[in-house]
Amino acid sequence: MSMDQDAGLTEVLAANEHFYDVFRSGDMAAMYELWSSRESISVYHPNWPGISGRDDVMTSWHQVMVMGEPPAVFARTPTVIRQGKTAVVFCTEVIEGNEMTASNVFVLENGAWKLTCHHARPLPVGDEADDSSDEPGGAEDGDGWV
Questions:
Q1: How many domains does the chain contain in total?
Q2: Is there a contact between 117 and 43 (Cβ–Cβ < 8 Å)?
Q3: Using an 8 Å Cβ cutoff, are 9 and 80 in contact?
Q4: Angstrom distances, CA of residue 66 to CA of 3, 69, 85, 115, 118
Q5: Please, what is the Cα angle at 43 between 50 and 101, to 5 degrees?
Q6: Torsion angle of alpha carbons 62, 21, 40, 4, nearest 10°?
Q7: Which 8-state DSSP code applies to residue 72?
Q8: How far is CA 64 from CA 29, 48, 52, 69, in A?
Q9: Is residue 12 in a domain?
């Protein structure tokens, strides 16, 4: 990996961490600035339907961060996949001891990494996590997602 690629990954990881800092702070002006102003944007909050379009996405963040109390959410074990001016960060979100899986899609816009999509969902727990035998491609036939 070249030094430029290393720097790019560091910048993406910093943008991802900044997103979670802003999320915890409840700062709507900063949240608005994190999102792309040129690309289509969407968000998938846990247990909500998908939301797209700047106005609706920002309204959803207002409901989560301002109408409620911003959660103490932290990103753990981030992994970056970068292709040119697009990067996806896969991570585990930890909220009050509970874990979720999340993906954050960023685009390079005017020299800064801006979000185009945030998607979070709870990780399976208990029997749900172990019960893959009755689904196509489940863990026991070796073709499932890991």
A1: 1
A2: yes
A3: yes
A4: 40, 6, 31, 20, 18
A5: 100
A6: 170
A7: -
A8: 14, 11, 16, 7
A9: yes
For residue 67, being part of any structural domain is answered with yes
Q: What is the CATH number of the domain that holds 29?
A: 3.10.450.50
Beta strands in the chain (DSSP E): 42-44, 51-52, 73-83, 86-95, 98-109, 112-122
Contact between residue 91 and residue 104 where contact means Cβ atoms under 8 Å apart: yes
| Exposed / middle / buried, residue 138 (Cβ in 10 Å: 0-12, 13-18, 19+) | middle
pLDDT in tens, 6-60: 667 999 999 999 999 999 999 999 999 999 999 999 999 999 999 999 999 999 9
138 in a structural domain? no
Q: Is 19 inside a domain boundary?
A: yes
**Planar angle of CA 98, 67, 115, nearest 5 degrees:** 65
Rounded CA-CA distance 27/11 in Å is: 21
Question: Which residue is listed with tokens 């685009």?
Answer: 107
Is pLDDT at 99 greater than 70 in this prediction?
Answer: yes
Residues of the domain holding 71: 3-124
Average pLDDT estimate for 63-75: 92
Residue among 43, 41, 78 nearest 61 (CA): 43
State how far the Cα of 135 lies from the Cα of 140, in Å rounded to an integer: 10
